[in-house]
Amino acid sequence: MKFALTVLLSAATLSTAWAETIDGINYDMGTPPIVVTHHAMGQRFSRLVRFYEAGIIGVDNKGMVAIHPGADQHLTLPQRQIAEKLIDAENHDRESMAMAIADGNGKRDAIPVIRVHLKDRWQKEMKSGWWIQDDKGEWLKKP
Known about the structure:
Blueprint: H1 2-17, E1 21-22, E2 25-26, H2 32-53, E3 57-59, E4 65-67, H3 77-105, H4 111-125, E5 131-133, E6 139-141
Parallel strand pairs: 3-5
Antiparallel strand pairs: 1-2, 3-4, 5-6
Helix pairs in contact: 2-3, 3-4
C-alpha cells in the first residue's frame, strides 16, 4: 500500500514537472473543466477530420475552426449543416479551454495570451496539407 502511494505521488509530481509552462501559465493541468473539455474535443475530432482531409475546414488566425473560403461551394446543404454544427461545438470548447486554463492558473486576465498560445499549438498540430490561416489573414496549406 505504501509503495503504491509512493508511485502515485511520484507520477503526479513527474507529470507536473513535465507540464508545459509558458509565462507562468501551466497549459497542461488536469482540472475537471479542462479534462471534460479536452475529452469532448477528442471525441469530436474523429468527425472533424474528414472535413480537414477534404480541405473544407481549417484553423484560422485566432485558433478557431472555420470553413475554408471557397470550400463551402463543394458541400451539399446537409454536409454544410453537419460541418457548421461541429465547428460551433468545437469553437465553443476552444473558448472554454482558454477560460478553464486561465481559471486553473488563477489568471483570468491572461486569456488573450492563452488564446494566442493555444492557436499556435493547434496550428502546429495540423497535418501537412490541412488549411491554416496566417496572421495576415491568408489561407494556406500547412507544409
